[in-house]
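Page 37, top half.
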Amino acid sequence: MQRIVLSLTASLLALGVTLAPFALARPDATAAPLIEGKTQPILLARMVVTATPLPE
């Protein structure tokens, strides 16, 4: 019984450490604007993409 309690405690502690950064993160102050699309709204936001050349 003690092993089960220790295992559950360790699992919950690991889950809390893993999820803590997401809970503490604040959303951006400036939200990206939405425009009305034909079937769904379109989010106008900037994305940064980095690419590496493929080997030939």
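Page 37, bottom half:
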Amino acid sequence: MFILAKVLQALGIADVGFALYVGMTQPHGMGTEYKFTGIGIVVFLAGYIVEVLWARGHE
């Protein structure tokens, strides 16, 4: 479960990086950048929540 949490966090960070790339390379990419950033944040938070819940269960 810990590995799943870390994979989700890594995917969230990668998605935010991709959002930055899209925002910088597309002339009207601000809306798309916001969408990708929001998705990345949600995925990262899901991984963080899984990690916290897993750690609480193994105290």
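Margin note: The helical segments are 2-25, 30-57.
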